[in-house]
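step=encode ok
step=design start
structure_in=
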């Protein structure tokens, strides 16, 4: 097959969506398909990219690392029939998602859309009142989904959200996969040496973006409770050794979070590592003892899968797609958005080495279901189902091997 991916972000921008696009494209290519990527341009980014088509764009006014593409560039859109594309797969319902929708309708191609983001949870980046933008966003995304031959949900929880919004298009639950081996080969000693971490220290790790939607002020407050030994009802929650929090992330909230760490008096124990090159991140997982994840807005949380592959148990807030990745009580703990409960679970795993080891082993085993070749095969089957349905003049039906759901 010849497949066109349309995405509102791509390298050099770093995000779960970008990694999903890159990983699926690479593994579909390995399966013999041709994948062409239509993405925004970024100032100063120069790289020989082969099958990547860059649209003119401007920096987003409220998020300077992000660019906004001009979606209707006739010269670029004419590449769709010239390349002989058979499937259009969009990774956003906005801008280049609209360009993909136009191409699908203009040339009679099936349209697949991956619901990567709970878009209504990100309206704080729009300089308008959330009471106005949230319902408008839900309505827009619902309308977009209704125009698709197939909607891909990364988790079953996201499928439920899509259905709750009134979408009746076929939905397939297909998570984003990762290269398991990459995160199983991290070097603990090298990772600890990079950040001056002693072997006797316990290390909590967060990987992601420093954005409001990641709920990192909650994490800093929970960490304060952990290292102060302040648990629920006076019970100790602290580690049995010195403890550090490593934040491998960059983003617009960094200044506020640094200020909060100073206010809480935990600044000496918090490491703001900033953005790292992808090849450096596995060493960070290897250096850690526990993964901590306070986000309330994930559709899957790709970093959770990476942590599992590295053999790290996780403490996370029970929310949407997170509960589909972390198996509470087996390879980590899921908590309410409650500081005492979160801190107590972190403290428990830091204190109980055998429990931490057992959960880490379970996490590594459970990560196998997210192996990139496995999920790429599922996406391939979903495409074939859509193409077959199209050839018969109907929509894809529920119940196919790819995981379609009514």
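sequence_out=
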């Amino acid at each position: 097959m010849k497949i066109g991916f349309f995405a509102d972000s791509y390298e050099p921008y770093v995000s779960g969506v970008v990694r999903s696009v890159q990983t699926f494209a690479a593994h579909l290519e390995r399966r013999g398909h041709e994948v062409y990527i239509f993405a925004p341009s970024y100032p100063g980014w120069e790289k020989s990219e082969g099958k990547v088509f860059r649209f003119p764009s401007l920096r987003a006014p409220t998020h300077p690392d992000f660019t906004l593409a001009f979606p209707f560039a006739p010269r670029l859109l004419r590449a769709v029939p010239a390349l002989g594309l058979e499937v259009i797969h969009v990774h956003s319902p906005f801008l280049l998602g609209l360009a993909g929708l136009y191409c699908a309708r203009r040339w009679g191609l099936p349209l697949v859309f991956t619901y990567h983001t709970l878009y209504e949870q990100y309206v704080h980046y729009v300089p308008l009142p959330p009471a106005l933008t949230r319902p408008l966003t839900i309505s827009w995304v619902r309308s977009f989904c209704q125009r698709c031959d197939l909607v891909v949900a990364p988790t079953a929880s996201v499928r439920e959200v899509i259905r709750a919004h009134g979408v009746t298009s076929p939905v397939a639950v297909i998570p984003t996969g990762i290269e398991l081996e990459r995160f199983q080969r991290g070097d603990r000693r090298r990772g600890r040496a990079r950040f001056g971490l002693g072997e006797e220290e316990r290390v909590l790790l967060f990987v992601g973006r420093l954005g409001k939607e990641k709920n990192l002020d909650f994490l800093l407050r929970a960490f304060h409770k952990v290292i102060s030994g302040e648990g629920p009802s006076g019970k100790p929650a602290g580690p049995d050794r010195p403890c550090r929090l490593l934040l491998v992330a960059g983003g617009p909230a960094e200044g506020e979070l640094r200020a909060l760490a100073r206010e809480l008096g935990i600044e000496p124990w918090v490491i703001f590592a900033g953005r790292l090159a992808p090849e450096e991140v596995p060493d960070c997982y290897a250096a850690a003892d526990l993964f901590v994840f306070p986000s309330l807005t994930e559709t899957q949380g790709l970093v959770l899968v990476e942590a599992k592959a590295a053999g790290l148990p996780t403490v996370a807030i029970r929310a949407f797609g997170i509960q589909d990745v972390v198996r509470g009580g087996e390879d980590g703990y899921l908590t309410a958005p409650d500081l005492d409960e979160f801190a107590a679970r972190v403290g428990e795993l830091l204190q109980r080495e055998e429990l931490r080891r057992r959960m880490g082993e379970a996490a590594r085993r459970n990560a196998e279901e997210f192996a990139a070749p496995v999920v790429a095969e599922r996406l391939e089957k979903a495409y074939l189902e859509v193409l077959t349905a199209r050839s018969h003049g109907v929509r894809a039906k529920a119940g196919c091997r790819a995981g379609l759901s009514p």
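step=design ok
step=annotate ok -> The chain has two domains: 2-177+371-405, 180-369.
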